[in-house]
Amino acid sequence: MISHNMTWIRYPSNSWDSSTDIEDVIASQNIISRFMHCYIAFFVPAGLLTGILILIIFIKNFSQNRILENLNIFLLDFTISNIAMIFFSFTVIPRPGYLKATHLGCGVLSFFFNVSYFNSQYLLILMLLTLLSPFSSTASWMTRATQSPLLCVGFILTCACCMSLVMVALLGTDNYHVNTDCQVDPLFAWPDYEIIKFTFGFGIPLILQLLCFILFFIKAAQSEARNLRKHSHIKLMLVITITMFSCRLFYNVMILYRTMLKIQESIGTFKNELMMNAAEIVLFIESCVSLIFILCLHKPLKNGIAEIIAKCKRTDTTNNRPDLGDTDAL
């Protein structure tokens, strides 16, 4: 039986005693502090700038054509989720310390973070289904589903909210008014929290993504080579999937390890805390990197960037052109 009494749990950095090696503490805190500063200085500006550019180009295309392709609608929602994840990453700024909040406030933060987390994970599956829809008949459920993109996005978002509510329920209801050290996945959560998050936020989506890729390559191998040119988005989907898998694998492994420590009623070591904090930052790096890959690999976005650059060059040329009246005066 897993105990739900989490009143004993502490961060190792907050549980010093006479046997604590001060050098280990200082080294651990220096590493995570430098890692955090590198993330805030380089990845956050790049991720936010890229996300804003993607939103501007999609909005501009919609205003001109009054329509977005199904994949573009999914990518737009995916971009918004990743931008939200970047904003949630500001909670790592106090590292090697932690954000101070009540249990209730930390639960609210965790809810909205998990909505973005689950939404981006299952949106990727939806985008992979768009790769399979050309191989399916017009009457198949897959084709009908991907032909209603707004309905699909609404369904995924509703499921993400429901799963996030379940996650919040697993934080417990005791001491909701008491201040605590807060992370997006709180330390005081029951072990069930991490188990369910791993299952529905990583394990099941990973299996579904693998099935989608296997089916795609089987169908593509059976089709004519000239038809493969229509699937230009496969490179983008592969890169996003690999990026998300590699970053979230590290994070979810550390989440499970933290669960094991809770079951053993152990607070762990400074090294465990360092690895968990590093995994959390790597998770946020994934959101920034995914946005950069989308901007660089998705053709409509590349065309939009080329148009913006060309427009800037034309404006610069116009401003630098000498005025004819001034020339005559000379």
Q: Give the % helix.
A: over 70%
Distance between the termini: 92 Å
Strand content: under 5%
- Outline the biggest β-sheet: 2 strands, antiparallel
Rg calc: 24 Å
Mean pLDDT, all residues = 86
Poorly predicted residue ranges: none
Q: Structural class, please?
A: mainly alpha
Which sequence of strands runs across the widest sheet? 1-2
Question: Helix count?
Answer: 10
Total strand count, please? Answer: 2
Helix and strand pattern: HHEHHHEHHHHH
Shape: globular
Question: What's the layout of helices and strands?
Answer:
Layout: H1 22-65, H2 70-88, E1 99-102, H3 103-132, H4 141-146, H5 149-169, E2 179-182, H6 191-222, H7 234-263, H8 270-297, H9 299-320, H10 324-329
Helix pairs in contact: 1-2, 1-8, 1-9, 2-3, 2-8, 3-5, 3-6, 3-7, 6-7, 7-8
Describe the structure.
This protein has helices at residues 22-65, 70-88, 103-132, 141-146, 149-169, 191-222, 234-263, 270-297, 299-320, 324-329, and strands spanning 99-102, 179-182. The longest helix has 44 residues, at 22-65. The chain is mainly α and 330 residues long. Strands 1-2 form a two-stranded antiparallel ribbon. Helix 1 crosses helix 9 and helix 2 packs antiparallel against helix 3. The mean pLDDT is 86.
